[in-house]
Design a protein that fits this description.
The protein is an all-alpha fold. The chain contains 7 helices and no strands. It has one domain. Helix 3 runs antiparallel to helix 4, helix 4 runs antiparallel to helix 5 and helix 5 packs antiparallel against helix 6. The longest helix has 27 residues. InterPro entries: DUF998.
């Protein structure tokens, strides 16, 4: 039972964040999912500063670490798959840090606070860890655990995440609707995580 929950914790995390962000957004008057970042739900001074990390970052960090642990304890797998597990754990730990240290209310501020700087570093770790993990899995030998089809799927999700990251960067520079591009980029990474959960389940 314990391992069954662990193997599906990647899938659970994906479903959790969808509902978590939606619920937090309901308590933030005027919040715009298309224009605002997910992290703005926990920004300093916002109405959901305390709520968002409690229902999003902290439980999600636990789920990511749980799934990462499942990956690293799998027997007879490539070191690349084990490395992907450590990346998922790093993603979980960074999710906790990003929740504990809120970003500034103005995401475009020229003089970020100390907390915002820590939040940004944690965000970079979150971003990179779920870029590296699918690449490691895609490069791992084909086996009963990681099929050839899933390796192709991993590459597709990496490309999708990169494309939407680039469109998000453009939206940030134009200060238009970076929120939707962030969700699409992170969504591609979480779809990969969900796929891996189902592949192993």
């Amino acid at each position: 039972m314990f391992e069954k929950v662990a193997v599906y914790s990647g899938l659970i995390a994906t479903v959790w964040i969808v509902f978590g962000v939606f619920i937090a957004g309901r308590y933030y008057a005027g919040y715009n999912h298309a224009k605002q970042f997910c992290s703005e739900l926990g920004a300093a001074g916002c109405p959901t500063e305390k709520l968002s990390p409690r229902i999003n970052n902290y439980p999600l960090g636990l789920l990511f670490c749980f799934f990462g642990w499942y990956l690293i304890q799998l027997p007879n797998v490539s070191l690349l798959v084990t490395g992907a597990g450590w990346c998922v754990i790093a993603h979980g730990l960074a999710t906790w840090v990003a929740g504990y240290f809120p970003m500034d209310a103005d995401p475009f501020t020229k003089n970020p606070s100390f907390n915002c700087k820590i939040h940004t570093v944690a965000g970079i770790v979150m971003l990179l860890s779920l870029f590296v993990a699918p690449v490691l899995v895609a490069l791992s030998p084909t086996s009963d655990v990681i099929s050839q089809h899933f390796k192709v799927f991993s590459w597709i999700m990496v490309v999708a995440a990169v494309v939407f990251l680039l469109t998000m960067t453009r939206a940030i520079n134009q200060q238009t609707n970076p929120g939707i591009h962030q969700r699409l980029s992170y969504g591609a990474q979480l779809i990969w995580l969900t796929g891996l959960s189902l592949q192993l389940g």
